[in-house]
Structures are given as C-alpha cells and as structure tokens.
Design brief:
Helix content of chain A: 25-40%
Helix content of chain B: 10-25%
Number of domains of chain B: 1
Shape of chain B: globular
Strand order of the largest sheet of chain A: 1-3-4-5-6-9-10-11
Order of helices and strands of chain B: EHEHEHHEHEEEEEEEEEH
Structural class of chain B: alpha/beta
Largest sheet of chain A: 8 strands, parallel, barrel
Order of helices and strands of chain A: EEHEHEHEHHEEEHEHEHEHH
Distance between the termini of chain A: 12 Å
Oligomer: heterodimer
CATH topology of chain B: Rossmann fold
Number of strands of chain B: 13
Number of strands of chain A: 11
Radius of gyration of chain B: 16 Å
Distance between the termini of chain B: 18 Å
Structural class of chain A: alpha/beta
CATH class of chain B: Alpha Beta
C-alpha cells in the first residue's frame, strides 16, 4: 500500500492537567493527561498531540513531566505544541520523549527558530503551526494569541517560508472553524497542502467522521487532527479509520 | 535473565523512548551507556538515532573507544545488534545529508535523500506504513510500523535487505546480515507491532 492517513487526537493541557478532556472511558483521574494518552494508545491512535496552553511561564515545566510520564507507558508518536520558543525548549521536550515539537507564535515573531530546531534535531521533528483566519476570498492571514491577534502575514506565504526553513510538517488550523464542529476550512488546507512538499495536518472544526474524510479528499491533508469527537466518545479511532478506508483512503487496520 | 543489553547513549533523541519500549517488551537489565567497557561485555547491543546522519555519526564516533568496542563485540564476538532509524542508517558506508559522512560500513551502501518521481509524494516519509519481509528473516513479520525519515538506505547488496516498504517507490525498511539487524521504522513508536519486534530481538539467537 502506501503511507496511511494519520488520525491524531489532540489533548489541551494546562498546568499539567487536561482541559476539556476524555470522558469515553472510566478514568481514575479524569484530568490526568497520561491516563488519557494511554486510552488513545490502546485505541490505536496513529499519533497523539498535546497542546500546552499553560499561561504562566513558571509552570511550563509541567508539560515536560507529562511528556516524560507518557513516554514511559505509551508507544506511539507524540507531538507537543504550545510555548516552544527556542531550540532549547524543543530539546527539553524531545529528550523527555516527544517525537515532534510544534512551534507557532515563536515562528511568527522569529521564523529562524524553525531552522534552529531543524538543524539541531532534524526536520522530521519540526512541526510548524499555521493558525489562520480567512480575511478575503481565497486569502488567509496568520493570527496569534488563540486567534485573537492579527499579524498581517499571509498564511500561504508564511507556510512556504517555514517549509523552506526546514519544517518537516505543517499543522494547519482554521481559527474561524476551531470549536465550531462545522468541519475544516478545506480551501485553506488544500491551498497550503498543494503548495508544499512536506506533509500537512488538517485541524480545527471537526464535528463528524465525514469531516475527517473531506480533510483528505478535498483538503489534500496527510493527517487529520480532532479533539471533541473523540474525547466525548461520539466516535472511536477505529471508526475514523473505517470511514477513511470506506472512502478508498489508506488507513490502519 | 542475567543478560546485559547495552543501549548506546550518544545523545540521540529517541534514547529514552527506546529504553521505555525495551522495558515494556520484557528486557531485564538494560544499560543506557556511553562506556565502551560495558559495550564490549554486553550480550546484546542497541543503537538508536534520530535527526541528521552527520550529527549522529559524529556524536557516536566522538566517544573514545566506542567504535573499537562495537567492532569487537558485534563484528568479532557476534553478539546480536539492533540499529533503529539513524542507528540503522549508520550501518552504511556513508551518508549524504548536509555533506558526506562515513558510517560504520558494516552493511554496504549509501544513505541518501528520498527523491520520489511523483512530486505529490510528501517528504519526510511520516506515518504508519507496511513492513514487507523480503528475506524470510525470523525477526521480521509482515505488519504496519511507524516511519519518520527523509533519507533512506540505498543498500549495495540486495541480499542484505530484510524488508521493504513503499512510499513513492520501494524503500528499504530493514537490513541485516548474520547477527546484525537494522530497522528504518521506529519499533519504540509502533505500538503492539513494535513491542513484539523488540521482544523477538531480545530472544533472538542468530
């Protein structure tokens, strides 16, 4: 066959605790990210994404501890995003057991952080986040601070720049769709995916299994990220794989 | 289980993940080590590695006495050896990634960029893909494993290829000869398939 389309559940973590977490299994501690990661590992998730939304800088190390404890018991690839500003931040996460780090705001302020990380640790671990809003027909702009702050930077140009600087993957999130359950911004994902030679993960807005399939068939993504449809037990990872396969796409069995 | 498994520490990013997976696969005594004396007495040796070929190679070769210890213990004494990802690629004669760098030269060939003819094929090769055994090797079973690499091992002698995968053409998934095996995929990140592979390696009597 060929490389499988990846289904990636994403857990938001603040101060070492899961926010809006999983409730489809009996958990001893519903806020423990490690226990939730294990549930997804057992369910056959293709990768896991932790998004660290810890606001205070003093508590940044809590995510390192989460990654270390996750790596002891989960044997799937883990990407960690949120708060990665320097190559040393990336190193701490990678040495704790993360396989990839996602960089967003820092790469807006200083795109060279992408080449710093790629040069030291390899492009394969360097995921560049593209958080964008539609500003005109066929045009998107990079927004920071959870989608509140416009930057004036064109999303496609930014994506091309970060790919050239050595990103090994792009995580493309529509800040218009995030949390809406209306589906990905397929035009945004496709515009970027068709323009770069590295893999693209579609993110933001998944409300059902058809949205995952569309992310690939119409968005041309190589991986599909979602949160709530998995966390609340509406759909399992196996159902997501089945839906992809039913659409003629390669997915794990 | 009095066997000592030496997991070589040259600063590779997947060192701890490989260690965790070995423990989950039932390994007894794993020495995470940069000490050639321990390597020279180990019963099994595992070489991890992620990132760029040259950086990994330089870090490994910079450990005083390590290459001699490896050549003695693996090449002459014949203890089982496993290389993972760049740890597998370093078995090659050389790697061409940010310049040309000499490898261990235990398996003939060159590590070079994956260059698919079809420009829609995404590089790095990232995700779950087939492990298709080609040589009937006892450690390699047909299945799905996780790959994460932009460079691949172009093996000189086809007899050294143990398994392949497919991403814009055939790519080498595993190499080996006698007591040496190397895998391009990440057993430490390949859930049940990966843990079963590591368990088999721990029991392997080549």
């Amino acid at each position: 066959m060929t490389v499988r389309i990846r289904v990636i559940p994403c857990l938001d973590v603040a101060n070492g605790r899961v926010v809006k977490g999983v409730n489809f299994v009996d958990l001893q501690d519903a806020g423990d990210p490690v226990e939730q990661a294990q549930a997804y590992d057992a369910a056959g998730a293709d990768e896991l994404c932790f998004l660290d939304i810890t606001a205070s800088h003093e508590k940044r190390d809590t995510i390192i501890d989460v990654v270390r404890r996750t790596a002891e018991v989960c044997f799937m690839p883990v990407t960690v995003g949120g708060g990665v500003r320097t190559a040393d931040d990336a190193r701490a996460l990678l040495m704790a057991g993360a396989d990839k780090v996602a960089v967003n705001s820092a790469a807006v302020a200083r795109p060279e952080v992408v080449s710093d990380i790629a040069t030291r640790f390899g492009s394969q671990c360097m995921v560049a986040s593209i958080d964008a809003r539609r500003v005109a027909e066929g045009r998107w702009e990079i927004f920071t601070h959870g989608g509140r702050t416009p930057t004036g930077i064109d999303a496609l140009e930014h994506a091309l720049r970060l790919a050239k600087l050595g990103a090994g993957e792009l995580l493309v999130t529509s800040m218009d769709r995030d949390g809406t359950r209306d589906g990905y911004d397929l035009e945004l994902v496709r515009t970027i995916a068709d323009a770069v030679s590295i893999p693209v993960v579609a993110s933001g807005g998944v409300g059902n299994l058809d949205h995952l399939v569309e992310g690939v068939t119409r968005g041309h993504a190589n991986a599909v990220l979602a949160a709530s449809i998995f966390h609340f037990g509406e759909h399992s990872i196996a159902e997501a794989h089945d839906a992809l396969r039913a659409a003629g796409l390669p997915a794990r069995t | 289980m009095s066997e000592t498994i030496a997991l070589i520490d040259f600063g590779a990013g997947n060192l701890h993940s490989v260690h965790n997976a070995l423990m989950a696969a039932g390994a007894g005594n794993v020495a995470v080590t940069a000490d050639p004396v321990i390597v020279a007495q180990a019963d099994r040796i595992i070489l991890p590695g992620v990132g760029a070929f040259g950086a990994c190679r330089d870090a490994l070769f910079a450990i005083d006495g390590m290459i001699d210890a490896l050549e003695q213990r693996v090449g002459k004494d014949g203890v089982p050896f496993l290389g993972i990802c760049v740890g597998m690629q370093m078995l090659a004669d050389k790697g061409i990634e940010y310049g040309a760098h000499d490898g261990l030269g235990w398996i003939g060939g060159t590590v070079k960029a994956i260059e698919p003819a079809d420009e829609r094929i995404k590089i790095p090769h990232m995700g779950w893909n087939d492990v298709t055994p080609t040589a009937g090797h006892e450690l390699l079973e047909s299945g799905e494993a996780y790959y994460l690499h932009g460079y691949h091992f172009d093996v000189a002698d086809e007899a050294d290829i143990l398994a392949t995968t497919s991403h814009g053409g055939s790519l080498v998934a595993a190499v080996g000869r006698d007591n040496i095996v190397g895998v391009q995929f990440h057993p430490e990140k390949s859930q049940a398939y990966g843990l079963a592979f590591l368990q088999q390696f721990l029991e392997w009597k080549p």
